[in-house]
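As described in the Methods, two query proteins were run sequentially through the folding procedure within a single session, without resetting any intermediate state between them. The first query and its resulting C-alpha coordinates are shown here.
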Amino acid sequence: MRRTNKDRSESMRQALIEAGRALFIEKGYADTSTPEIVNRAGVTRGALYHHFEDKKDLFRAVVEREAGEIANDIDAAAPADDGPRQAILEGTKAYFDAMARPGRTRLLLLDGPAVLGKDIMRAIDRETSEATLKHGLQALLSKSDNKDNAETLAILLSAAFDRAALAIETGAERQRYEDAIASLIDGLTD
Protein backbone atom coordinates (compact mmCIF):
# COMPACT_ATOMS: atom_id res chain seq x y z
CA MET A 1 0.00 0.00 0.00
CA ARG A 2 1.29 3.42 -0.96
CA ARG A 3 1.75 6.04 1.70
CA THR A 4 0.02 9.36 1.22
CA ASN A 5 1.75 12.71 1.42
CA LYS A 6 -0.06 13.25 4.71
CA ASP A 7 1.35 9.96 6.08
CA ARG A 8 4.88 10.86 4.94
CA SER A 9 4.56 14.34 6.41
CA GLU A 10 3.38 12.99 9.78
CA SER A 11 6.14 10.38 9.75
CA MET A 12 8.71 13.13 9.13
CA ARG A 13 7.22 15.26 11.92
CA GLN A 14 7.40 12.34 14.36
CA ALA A 15 11.01 11.61 13.33
CA LEU A 16 11.90 15.22 14.14
CA ILE A 17 10.17 15.02 17.51
CA GLU A 18 11.95 11.76 18.35
CA ALA A 19 15.33 13.13 17.26
CA GLY A 20 14.74 16.36 19.13
CA ARG A 21 13.70 14.50 22.27
CA ALA A 22 16.80 12.32 22.23
CA LEU A 23 19.16 15.25 21.70
CA PHE A 24 17.42 17.55 24.18
CA ILE A 25 17.86 14.83 26.80
CA GLU A 26 21.46 13.97 25.86
CA LYS A 27 22.76 17.51 25.44
CA GLY A 28 20.13 19.85 26.79
CA TYR A 29 18.17 22.37 24.79
CA ALA A 30 20.88 25.04 24.63
CA ASP A 31 23.57 22.68 23.38
CA THR A 32 21.43 21.00 20.72
CA SER A 33 21.71 22.45 17.22
CA THR A 34 19.17 22.21 14.43
CA PRO A 35 21.71 20.54 12.08
CA GLU A 36 22.13 17.79 14.69
CA ILE A 37 18.37 17.34 14.91
CA VAL A 38 17.84 17.02 11.15
CA ASN A 39 20.84 14.71 10.86
CA ARG A 40 19.51 12.44 13.62
CA ALA A 41 16.01 12.49 12.09
CA GLY A 42 17.34 11.78 8.60
CA VAL A 43 15.51 14.72 7.06
CA THR A 44 16.46 18.03 5.49
CA ARG A 45 16.67 21.35 7.27
CA GLY A 46 13.78 22.49 5.08
CA ALA A 47 11.67 19.67 6.51
CA LEU A 48 12.36 20.91 10.03
CA TYR A 49 11.19 24.41 9.14
CA HIS A 50 8.20 23.07 7.23
CA HIS A 51 6.92 21.41 10.42
CA PHE A 52 8.23 23.74 13.10
CA GLU A 53 8.86 27.46 13.24
CA ASP A 54 12.20 26.97 14.97
CA LYS A 55 14.02 24.80 17.52
CA LYS A 56 11.90 26.20 20.35
CA ASP A 57 8.71 25.22 18.52
CA LEU A 58 10.07 21.69 18.12
CA PHE A 59 10.96 21.63 21.81
CA ARG A 60 7.42 22.66 22.67
CA ALA A 61 6.07 19.79 20.55
CA VAL A 62 8.34 17.39 22.44
CA VAL A 63 7.17 18.74 25.81
CA GLU A 64 3.50 18.65 24.79
CA ARG A 65 3.81 15.05 23.62
CA GLU A 66 5.56 14.01 26.85
CA ALA A 67 2.95 15.75 29.00
CA GLY A 68 0.14 14.16 26.99
CA GLU A 69 1.65 10.69 27.39
CA ILE A 70 1.86 11.19 31.15
CA ALA A 71 -1.77 12.26 31.34
CA ASN A 72 -2.77 9.19 29.30
CA ASP A 73 -0.79 6.93 31.64
CA ILE A 74 -2.51 8.50 34.64
CA ASP A 75 -5.96 8.14 33.09
CA ALA A 76 -5.30 4.49 32.24
CA ALA A 77 -4.07 3.67 35.75
CA ALA A 78 -6.76 5.49 37.70
CA PRO A 79 -10.13 3.82 37.07
CA ALA A 80 -12.92 5.86 38.63
CA ASP A 81 -14.92 2.77 39.59
CA ASP A 82 -12.58 2.17 42.55
CA GLY A 83 -13.62 5.51 44.03
CA PRO A 84 -11.99 8.93 43.75
CA ARG A 85 -9.47 8.45 46.57
CA GLN A 86 -8.11 5.23 45.09
CA ALA A 87 -8.12 6.74 41.59
CA ILE A 88 -5.97 9.65 42.81
CA LEU A 89 -3.57 7.29 44.59
CA GLU A 90 -3.28 5.06 41.51
CA GLY A 91 -2.79 8.20 39.44
CA THR A 92 0.00 9.21 41.82
CA LYS A 93 1.82 5.94 41.18
CA ALA A 94 1.26 6.28 37.45
CA TYR A 95 2.66 9.82 37.50
CA PHE A 96 5.81 8.72 39.30
CA ASP A 97 6.16 5.75 36.93
CA ALA A 98 5.76 8.04 33.92
CA MET A 99 8.23 10.58 35.25
CA ALA A 100 10.78 7.78 35.70
CA ARG A 101 11.11 7.54 31.92
CA PRO A 102 14.64 8.77 31.19
CA GLY A 103 14.74 12.45 30.36
CA ARG A 104 11.21 13.40 31.38
CA THR A 105 12.18 15.27 34.50
CA ARG A 106 14.73 17.29 32.56
CA LEU A 107 12.33 18.02 29.71
CA LEU A 108 9.27 18.90 31.76
CA LEU A 109 10.54 20.23 35.05
CA LEU A 110 13.93 21.77 34.29
CA ASP A 111 14.38 22.74 30.64
CA GLY A 112 10.68 23.19 29.91
CA PRO A 113 10.14 26.16 32.22
CA ALA A 114 13.55 27.64 31.31
CA VAL A 115 12.98 27.43 27.56
CA LEU A 116 9.23 27.88 27.18
CA GLY A 117 8.54 30.01 30.23
CA LYS A 118 6.27 29.43 33.16
CA ASP A 119 3.09 30.58 31.41
CA ILE A 120 3.38 28.10 28.55
CA MET A 121 4.36 25.30 30.90
CA ARG A 122 1.38 26.11 33.15
CA ALA A 123 -0.92 25.99 30.13
CA ILE A 124 0.48 22.61 29.06
CA ASP A 125 0.17 21.23 32.59
CA ARG A 126 -3.35 22.63 32.95
CA GLU A 127 -4.40 20.73 29.80
CA THR A 128 -2.76 17.43 30.75
CA SER A 129 -1.98 15.91 34.15
CA GLU A 130 -3.30 18.81 36.20
CA ALA A 131 -6.66 18.46 34.44
CA THR A 132 -6.77 14.79 35.42
CA LEU A 133 -5.90 15.67 39.02
CA LYS A 134 -8.54 18.40 39.10
CA HIS A 135 -11.25 15.97 37.95
CA GLY A 136 -10.18 13.47 40.59
CA LEU A 137 -10.24 16.11 43.30
CA GLN A 138 -13.66 17.34 42.21
CA ALA A 139 -15.00 13.81 42.60
CA LEU A 140 -13.21 13.31 45.93
CA LEU A 141 -14.36 16.63 47.38
CA SER A 142 -17.89 16.68 45.98
CA LYS A 143 -19.40 16.26 49.46
CA SER A 144 -16.77 18.04 51.55
CA ASP A 145 -16.23 21.58 52.74
CA ASN A 146 -13.34 21.83 50.25
CA LYS A 147 -15.47 21.16 47.14
CA ASP A 148 -15.05 24.73 45.85
CA ASN A 149 -11.27 24.52 46.17
CA ALA A 150 -10.63 21.64 43.75
CA GLU A 151 -9.00 23.81 41.09
CA THR A 152 -6.70 25.61 43.52
CA LEU A 153 -5.83 22.36 45.28
CA ALA A 154 -5.02 20.76 41.91
CA ILE A 155 -2.52 23.56 41.20
CA LEU A 156 -0.89 23.16 44.61
CA LEU A 157 -0.79 19.37 44.46
CA SER A 158 0.53 19.45 40.91
CA ALA A 159 3.48 21.48 42.16
CA ALA A 160 3.96 18.97 44.99
CA PHE A 161 3.97 16.10 42.49
CA ASP A 162 6.62 17.87 40.42
CA ARG A 163 8.84 18.53 43.44
CA ALA A 164 8.46 14.89 44.45
CA ALA A 165 9.43 13.72 40.95
CA LEU A 166 12.58 15.84 41.12
CA ALA A 167 13.46 14.44 44.54
CA ILE A 168 12.81 10.86 43.46
CA GLU A 169 15.01 11.28 40.39
CA THR A 170 17.87 12.42 42.62
CA GLY A 171 17.54 9.37 44.85
CA ALA A 172 14.80 10.07 47.38
CA GLU A 173 12.66 7.14 48.44
CA ARG A 174 9.56 7.10 46.24
CA GLN A 175 7.34 5.34 48.77
CA ARG A 176 7.78 8.20 51.23
CA TYR A 177 6.38 10.60 48.63
CA GLU A 178 3.50 8.29 47.75
CA ASP A 179 2.66 8.06 51.46
CA ALA A 180 2.90 11.84 51.87
CA ILE A 181 0.56 12.41 48.91
CA ALA A 182 -1.91 9.92 50.43
CA SER A 183 -1.78 11.87 53.71
CA LEU A 184 -2.43 15.12 51.89
CA ILE A 185 -5.38 13.60 50.01
CA ASP A 186 -6.85 12.13 53.20
CA GLY A 187 -6.46 15.47 54.96
CA LEU A 188 -8.62 17.16 52.35
CA THR A 189 -11.72 15.19 53.31
CA ASP A 190 -11.33 15.22 57.11
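Immediately afterward, the second query was submitted; its sequence and C-alpha coordinates are:
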Amino acid sequence: MLKTSLKVVYTLIRIIPIKLRNGNKFKIKKEQRQLEKGLDIIIKRNGEMTIGKNNNIRRNCHLVANDGGKIIIGSNNFFNYNVSITALFQIKIGNHCKLANNVVIIDHDHDYKNGNNGYKVDNVILGNNVWVGANSTILKGVTIGDGAVVAAGSVVTKNVPKRAVVAGSPAKIIKRY
Protein backbone atom coordinates (compact mmCIF):
# COMPACT_ATOMS: atom_id res chain seq x y z
CA MET A 1 0.00 0.00 0.00
CA LEU A 2 2.79 2.44 0.93
CA LYS A 3 4.74 1.55 -2.22
CA THR A 4 1.66 2.28 -4.39
CA SER A 5 1.10 5.59 -2.60
CA LEU A 6 4.72 6.61 -3.18
CA LYS A 7 4.37 5.84 -6.92
CA VAL A 8 1.26 8.05 -7.08
CA VAL A 9 3.04 10.90 -5.27
CA TYR A 10 6.09 10.57 -7.51
CA THR A 11 3.92 10.57 -10.65
CA LEU A 12 2.16 13.73 -9.45
CA ILE A 13 5.51 15.39 -8.77
CA ARG A 14 6.54 14.60 -12.38
CA ILE A 15 3.23 15.76 -13.93
CA ILE A 16 2.51 19.00 -12.03
CA PRO A 17 5.39 21.02 -13.60
CA ILE A 18 4.49 19.74 -17.09
CA LYS A 19 0.84 20.70 -16.53
CA LEU A 20 1.80 24.13 -15.19
CA ARG A 21 4.13 24.78 -18.14
CA ASN A 22 1.65 23.65 -20.82
CA GLY A 23 -1.82 24.28 -19.37
CA ASN A 24 -4.69 22.96 -21.49
CA LYS A 25 -2.30 21.75 -24.22
CA PHE A 26 -1.44 18.78 -21.95
CA LYS A 27 -4.17 16.41 -20.78
CA ILE A 28 -3.49 13.36 -18.68
CA LYS A 29 -5.74 10.97 -16.79
CA LYS A 30 -5.16 10.88 -13.04
CA GLU A 31 -4.83 7.10 -12.90
CA GLN A 32 -1.25 6.58 -14.09
CA ARG A 33 0.63 3.40 -13.37
CA GLN A 34 4.16 4.77 -13.71
CA LEU A 35 5.89 7.70 -15.35
CA GLU A 36 9.59 7.35 -14.64
CA LYS A 37 12.27 9.95 -14.04
CA GLY A 38 13.80 11.24 -17.25
CA LEU A 39 10.49 11.35 -19.15
CA ASP A 40 10.83 14.31 -21.51
CA ILE A 41 7.52 15.91 -22.53
CA ILE A 42 7.76 18.92 -24.85
CA ILE A 43 4.73 20.75 -26.21
CA LYS A 44 5.53 23.69 -28.47
CA ARG A 45 3.18 26.60 -29.27
CA ASN A 46 0.00 25.07 -30.73
CA GLY A 47 0.94 21.47 -29.97
CA GLU A 48 -1.31 19.21 -27.90
CA MET A 49 -0.81 15.98 -25.98
CA THR A 50 -3.35 13.64 -24.37
CA ILE A 51 -2.30 10.63 -22.32
CA GLY A 52 -4.90 8.09 -21.18
CA LYS A 53 -4.89 6.16 -17.90
CA ASN A 54 -2.70 3.36 -16.57
CA ASN A 55 0.27 3.87 -18.88
CA ASN A 56 3.74 2.72 -17.89
CA ILE A 57 6.31 5.00 -19.54
CA ARG A 58 9.91 4.17 -18.72
CA ARG A 59 12.99 6.35 -18.30
CA ASN A 60 14.41 8.54 -21.09
CA CYS A 61 11.31 8.54 -23.29
CA HIS A 62 10.82 11.68 -25.39
CA LEU A 63 7.33 12.83 -26.37
CA VAL A 64 7.38 15.98 -28.52
CA ALA A 65 4.32 17.75 -29.94
CA ASN A 66 5.82 20.46 -32.13
CA ASP A 67 3.90 23.53 -33.28
CA GLY A 68 0.50 22.25 -34.42
CA GLY A 69 1.37 18.62 -33.65
CA LYS A 70 -0.88 16.30 -31.64
CA ILE A 71 0.05 13.18 -29.71
CA ILE A 72 -2.84 11.07 -28.46
CA ILE A 73 -1.97 8.06 -26.31
CA GLY A 74 -4.68 5.68 -25.17
CA SER A 75 -4.76 3.65 -21.96
CA ASN A 76 -2.87 0.65 -20.55
CA ASN A 77 0.21 1.04 -22.78
CA PHE A 78 3.82 0.20 -22.02
CA PHE A 79 6.71 2.27 -23.43
CA ASN A 80 10.12 0.82 -22.61
CA TYR A 81 13.34 2.86 -22.29
CA ASN A 82 14.28 5.48 -24.91
CA VAL A 83 11.04 5.56 -26.92
CA SER A 84 10.92 8.73 -29.06
CA ILE A 85 7.65 10.10 -30.47
CA THR A 86 7.71 13.37 -32.43
CA ALA A 87 4.63 14.95 -34.02
CA LEU A 88 4.28 17.89 -36.39
CA PHE A 89 0.83 16.67 -37.46
CA GLN A 90 -0.77 13.81 -35.49
CA ILE A 91 0.30 10.54 -33.89
CA LYS A 92 -2.35 8.38 -32.28
CA ILE A 93 -1.58 5.28 -30.22
CA GLY A 94 -4.46 3.02 -29.19
CA ASN A 95 -4.87 0.95 -26.02
CA HIS A 96 -2.81 -1.98 -24.70
CA CYS A 97 0.17 -1.29 -26.98
CA LYS A 98 3.74 -2.28 -26.17
CA LEU A 99 6.70 -0.31 -27.51
CA ALA A 100 10.12 -1.86 -26.84
CA ASN A 101 13.43 -0.05 -26.26
CA ASN A 102 14.53 2.61 -28.76
CA VAL A 103 11.33 2.71 -30.83
CA VAL A 104 11.01 5.88 -32.96
CA ILE A 105 7.65 7.15 -34.25
CA ILE A 106 7.68 10.27 -36.42
CA ASP A 107 4.94 11.82 -38.57
CA HIS A 108 7.08 13.99 -40.86
CA ASP A 109 9.99 14.08 -43.26
CA HIS A 110 12.16 16.99 -44.30
CA ASP A 111 11.19 18.25 -47.74
CA TYR A 112 14.72 18.11 -49.15
CA LYS A 113 13.55 19.19 -52.61
CA ASN A 114 12.76 22.63 -51.19
CA GLY A 115 16.17 23.18 -49.59
CA ASN A 116 15.20 21.68 -46.20
CA ASN A 117 12.83 24.60 -45.61
CA GLY A 118 9.73 22.52 -45.13
CA TYR A 119 8.27 19.24 -44.04
CA LYS A 120 6.00 16.58 -45.46
CA VAL A 121 3.56 15.43 -42.79
CA ASP A 122 0.95 12.68 -42.44
CA ASN A 123 -0.84 10.84 -39.62
CA VAL A 124 0.61 7.86 -37.81
CA ILE A 125 -1.94 5.56 -36.18
CA LEU A 126 -1.28 2.50 -34.04
CA GLY A 127 -4.39 0.44 -33.36
CA ASN A 128 -5.09 -1.46 -30.15
CA ASN A 129 -2.87 -4.31 -28.90
CA VAL A 130 0.03 -3.41 -31.20
CA TRP A 131 3.50 -4.68 -30.27
CA VAL A 132 6.54 -2.85 -31.69
CA GLY A 133 9.93 -4.55 -31.26
CA ALA A 134 13.17 -2.90 -30.15
CA ASN A 135 14.98 -0.45 -32.44
CA SER A 136 12.05 -0.16 -34.86
CA THR A 137 11.07 3.03 -36.70
CA ILE A 138 7.55 3.95 -37.80
CA LEU A 139 7.38 6.70 -40.42
CA LYS A 140 4.73 9.19 -41.55
CA GLY A 141 1.52 8.06 -43.19
CA VAL A 142 1.50 4.62 -41.56
CA THR A 143 -1.49 2.93 -39.95
CA ILE A 144 -0.79 -0.23 -37.98
CA GLY A 145 -3.89 -2.37 -37.49
CA ASP A 146 -5.16 -3.90 -34.25
CA GLY A 147 -3.11 -6.81 -32.93
CA ALA A 148 -0.23 -6.32 -35.38
CA VAL A 149 3.39 -7.07 -34.49
CA VAL A 150 6.41 -5.13 -35.77
CA ALA A 151 9.60 -7.21 -35.46
CA ALA A 152 12.70 -5.72 -33.85
CA GLY A 153 14.81 -3.51 -36.10
CA SER A 154 12.06 -2.91 -38.66
CA VAL A 155 11.43 0.31 -40.60
CA VAL A 156 7.69 0.63 -41.25
CA THR A 157 6.95 2.76 -44.33
CA LYS A 158 3.54 1.33 -45.36
CA ASN A 159 0.31 0.36 -43.64
CA VAL A 160 0.22 -2.88 -41.67
CA PRO A 161 -3.05 -4.86 -41.66
CA LYS A 162 -4.55 -6.02 -38.40
CA ARG A 163 -3.10 -9.23 -36.93
CA ALA A 164 -0.09 -9.19 -39.28
CA VAL A 165 3.57 -9.62 -38.38
CA VAL A 166 5.99 -7.41 -40.31
CA ALA A 167 9.79 -7.40 -40.38
CA GLY A 168 12.66 -5.84 -42.28
CA SER A 169 13.70 -2.55 -43.78
CA PRO A 170 11.36 -1.66 -45.34
CA ALA A 171 8.99 -3.84 -43.32
CA LYS A 172 7.10 -6.56 -45.18
CA ILE A 173 4.41 -8.97 -44.01
CA ILE A 174 5.97 -12.27 -42.96
CA LYS A 175 2.97 -13.82 -41.23
CA ARG A 176 -0.73 -13.38 -40.50
CA TYR A 177 -2.56 -14.88 -37.57
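DSSP finds one helix and 22 strands in the chain. We note this only descriptively and draw no conclusion about the first query from it.
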